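Q: My collaborator sent me two sequences in one message, no labels, and asked for predicted structures for both. Can we handle them in order? The first one she listed is below.
A: Yes, handling them in the order given. First sequence, followed by its structure tokens:
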Amino acid sequence: MDKKIYKNQKIDEEMFFYESESGLRVYLVPKKGYMKKHAVFATKYGSNDNKFIPIGKKEMIEVPEGIAHFLEHKLFEEPDENIFDQFSKFGASVNAYTNFNQTAYLFSCTDNFYESLELLIKFVQNPYFTDENVDKEKGIIAQEIKMYEDSPGWKVFFNCLTGMYHNHPVKIDIAGTVESIQKIDKETLYTCYNTFYHPKNMVLFLVGDISFDEVIKVVEKSEKKDIKNNIEEITRIYSEEPKEIKEKYIEENLVTSIPIFTIGFKDDDVGLDGKKLVKKEIATNILLDMLFGRSSKFYQELYNEGLVDSSFGGQYIGHKSYGHSIIAGQSYKPEIVLEKTNLYLENMRNKGLNKEDFERIKKKNIGSNIMGFNSIDFIANNFINYLFLDFSFIDYIDLYDSISFDDISNRFNNHYRKDNYTLSVVKPV
């Protein structure tokens, strides 16, 4: 058994690692004395991955939008017993999600952990697609898509992505469209499954008071034995994306009591991964907190003038091929909020950022993340996200601590410009 242990003395945490014969990477963060246990079985496959070369093929294919999300739904389909019922018998709560870059299947429990883990591995590795159950699912997901199309919060966000991006698939709704899912069939689902659900493209992450030796026994017992480990890395194809935004302003009318808005700043500093990508993410989120957080003078000014409420805030989202800062909220005068934001950013460019604000927010966020390691859910969610960015979350605090004021200042000048933002607004009907 080739088991490795990584330790971080600063936060007094350790992580176990093991790679199975099939190429599956297995990680455990042990939390002695914790009642709750959590497992996530995830694949590096999301809604962005619509153009790729299937395993064993040489030619690129393009699959219907929304197929990764559709596949997630269908993996819960079994010819006999319901998967949810099986987990319930063990007292475990099971769920799944698909985002732009990954699909994850997860459960949490206090008892019967190893039995639940075996069930998780087996059902994810045993797809059951038929013409009948695929057609049935189209109606279910079409209703889900229509529900999101009527959601002001969902629409204002995706409209902003549509305004920022010309070609990148991140602008496409994760569930696809009612039209695109009609093109999905069982053969295409199996093609996507066989390519992206290969163990070498997947990660199993566990956290709780769990025996790693027992975990490895379950993995060796449960994973398929006929999978070849000598496959090459999956070739994913993304259309070339211009640095410029596509549209400056997008407006839509939906049922909402107050107009809502999203300002998106498109990132043209792309192509990074691993530590460099995560360092950029940290720096940008510190910046957003300094500029637009609850303790900022700008937030207080907007709030006191009645231009925003407590929903106002910002977040940076970045991956190797794309990235953007999102500043969002609700306001009766979103155009005035944008105008004041631009004036504020220009003023900050002229006078410079406040180093004391940087130090205070950096310390606050380091403390919050250290506290986060007391939460099973916090650990599980973050570890999976960062593992697919080729970074171990156990080193996150060390990387956070290395961020300097110069890193923040350089990022501010390069990212928040007058030529790289989109304003998306949803107003009442």
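Q: And the one she listed second?
A: Here it is, processed independently of the first:
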Amino acid sequence: MFRMEALENRQRSWRGRAILLPDIPIWIMTGLCVLFFITFLVFIMVGTYTRRINVTGEVTSSPGPARIYSGVQGTVVQQFVSQGALINKGAPVYRIDVSKSTSRGVVSDNQRKDIENQLLRVGDIISRLEASKQTTLHMLEKQKSQYSEALSRSSAIVKRAEEGIGIMKNNMDNYRRYQSRGLINKDQLTNQVSLYYQQQNNLLGLSGQNEQNALQITSLESQIQTQAAEFDNRIYQMELQRYELHKELSGTDAGGEVIVRALTDGIIDSLSVTVGQMVSVGDSLFQVIPQKVDTYDLVLWVPNDSVPYITPGDRLNVRYEAFPSGKFGQFAAVVETVSKIPASPQEMMTYQGAPKNIQAAVPWYKVVVRPKMQAIAYGEKVLPLENGMKAQSTLFLEKRKIYQWMLSPLYDVKHSAAGPVHG
């Protein structure tokens, strides 16, 4: 009974009675299979599916916030406003010291003193030139006035001398008639003629002196114009030098301290640095948010294979990270604008919600979306949207029949095997 054959036989033997169930009729199996295939064909032929894509973005306001970055390297020495304060355009916010010191003192202060001394000397030279100009022109005008008076006197003398010459000429003519009649002798006529020509020579000398006075007046007028132009030119050169010194002084001031101002009206949202802190080029200093926000928009980044299917007015679903969809659900939004050219990497880097793995081979397009709800109701509170809130959106793209989606790989094989397209 303990033989190996007996033990194996006991293990292989049935412990109960075997009952065989009757088979399912073949017509039922065939009907179920046919019904399944018919349902499947109807589903893939009639049913449709819309391709969708999930993209990321962030909330921005219109007008948007102004982010101010440092353009210099230095130390913050003064803060003019506090966080949350209302500020106007051009108002100072920070004063940054960018000066350098040596054993002789602060370089910018020394340069400023030297330039101010040069400005004082240049101003003194200009004042002296203007005084010399006035003195020189006054002397020339005085000489011109004297020569004008001399010209007036000599002109009167010449006029009277001409009248006397005319009288002597009449006398000479009379003496000639007297001599022809025998009333006077020839010597008397000769004396009269000699006297006439002597007076005429005197008149010629007076006329030459009168013309010299007129020429001297003309020369003085020309000299006045020339001297005035020379002084004006020298003064202009010194003013140019003073202007260059002022420019150099402004550059020196910029090398000592820099005032950072607000570029728009609004509210100081955040101050990134404090007094005594060093800043480098590109460091964030402060942010200004507009006092009144018109609307909040959502900036999305869409790859190029999805852009052709997006048009302004399309509806989409939005999920905010600040308002989890499991509790708040999804929110409706409408596409406002779609960019026509890809966004540059520099533009995308200015947005926190832009894709981080930016590849040059995959162009990204900027899509602006307007949420239907500008604020979220939560209990008795109203939670507004804020700048920088990250969100995800579901875009609905092309709509096809299900069989077309199933056969899309075959279309790719067809296109790859087809020849050139004509027409």
